[in-house]
Amino acid sequence: xxxxxxxxxxxxxxxxxxxxxxxxxxxxxxxxxxxxxxxxxxxxxxxxxxxxxxxxxxxxxxxxxxxxxxxxxxxxxxxxx
Length: 81
Fold this sequence. Notes:
Layout: H1 2-5, E1 8-10, E2 16-20, E3 23-27, H2 30-54, H3 59-80
Antiparallel strand pairs: 1-2, 2-3
């Protein structure tokens, strides 16, 4: 799979084409993709922290997920710059 990812071309500064066999993925704005992935991961961390906090599983693990989500919130602001 990594060999296939090396077969990529750049259309302009913000657009990236990646060929995966017969399929082609076009990423028009790399930072927008990173922003969306960051939001998804942040939501998963907050959801996991909330679920772990409901059950008396381990408060340290739950707080760690909340902390990771908070750090990703700061990263989200930096991505938008």
